[in-house]
Amino acid sequence: MTNTDKILVLGGCRSGKSSHALNLAEGMGGRRIFVATCVPRDDEMKDRVDRHRRERDATWDTLEVPVDLAGTITAHSPSTDVILVDCLTLWLSNLLMRTDDVDCIRRRIDDLAEAVRSAPRNVILVSNEVGAGIVPENRLARHYRDLAGWTNQAVAAACDRVVWTVAGIPVTIKPAFQATAP
Amino acid sequence: MTNTDKILVLGGCRSGKSSHALNLAEGMGGRRIFVATCVPRDDEMKDRVDRHRRERDATWDTLEVPVDLAGTITAHSPSTDVILVDCLTLWLSNLLMRTDDVDCIRRRIDDLAEAVRSAPRNVILVSNEVGAGIVPENRLARHYRDLAGWTNQAVAAACDRVVWTVAGIPVTIKPAFQATAP
Amino acid sequence: MTNTDKILVLGGCRSGKSSHALNLAEGMGGRRIFVATCVPRDDEMKDRVDRHRRERDATWDTLEVPVDLAGTITAHSPSTDVILVDCLTLWLSNLLMRTDDVDCIRRRIDDLAEAVRSAPRNVILVSNEVGAGIVPENRLARHYRDLAGWTNQAVAAACDRVVWTVAGIPVTIKPAFQATAP
Prior knowledge:
3 copies of one chain form a homotrimer.
Chain A: E1 6-11, H1 17-26, E2 32-36, H2 43-55, E3 60-64, H3 69-75, E4 82-86, H4 88-98, H5 102-118, E5 122-128, H6 139-158, E6 161-166, E7 169-174
Parallel strand pairs in A: 1-5, 1-6, 2-3, 2-4, 4-5
Antiparallel strand pairs in A: 6-7
Helix pairs in contact in A: 3-5, 4-6, 5-6
């Protein structure tokens, strides 16, 4: 099955990436699964999850998948037309709470990218850009930032389309747009 | 009056957004008002304000408006051709010093967007992207980041044109550029 | 000698900028010099340097130049076809460890931009975007962020081409791409 879309929607906090990903998915029709990587641990997170859930209409099924994204994307029933994963940076946080073995994490990232590439359905993934601020003083935050960048690179390479969101505006950066002469 | 430009210039710190906004305004001719949201409270801020003021030529009037942007944009004399607001993230900080009522702040953001949309003159607004770094440990900073993102989205939706600045380079992201086939 | 390329590759942490800069340089053929501004001071930095070195093939000479980039770019033997500098934000950190005289630093930034502009060979420079996160609480970090922005602006103005990298995807932002009508 070659006629599937694999799309990464990437942007800063509150840049409109989740809304844009929902719009893309709802334009695709069919059976939709929303894969939430968020497992709420406090009221602030719970509020975000509830707000997102209210933004989706009844045509969505929701799964909470903190870690096994690759398995969810590949193993799911063929009658599912689109899987929307929101979001990869939280998935990475969940992984890091279970292991600090970098090789293991890198393998998980590669497995995820491969699952996206080979899935026989549309897959839309949301991720945060976290690397364009000042270098964090906290060593763990630097480590996380590196891994988030690797995740975004690996998944972007596996997708046909990458959309960078700024202030609610989706900017398609893959496939490349054409620069004009100066 | 439909033939007006509403432009948001958005970028990171020292990305050239204020200079670009000034250039845009000076290309529009006529009577210009610079609306500074900055009310300097220490020497560092005072230096920034003075530097910006020196960068403007004598054709500008300057108003210091810490909070009532919507009123300033709509109520101002029709003989004013362009209002340049610099910048929205500082305006948001000023608001947050007066209230922590999120509904009130959201209403202010909506009012601002509506004022931009309906103003019978050119309006150029400068804002900071603050959401593309690591998630801040500080809860208030996370709250601020969310509100700044909402402000940028609401104002971007009200503008005909949105310019993303990087390293002094203005990149027009609204209206959309055309992606080429892969 | 006018037929040279001057390219700035700019992006967040782990956005693929170094790899892209290497690819650009390896597409240019001839004698290549890699100018590393990194002088490793701890194991974390040493690991990064070693990883980058392993990513380059044997056609590269490597110089460690913590501060005198302008001299290295202009004075080097004319038989060198391309100089790749990685990266400018670390160069700025090295400068700031030697002086806190802002005028001196601004002069160094201008000298670097002039060296890039006038060098009789291809020059590719890598730099970090550090200004798109929340305003740092630390005053020195704010100062650094300003200077990094000025460096990126000055060098971008001296380059024919500027590439913004996101998730491993190079987005050419200079020369400008053409926006389409809405």
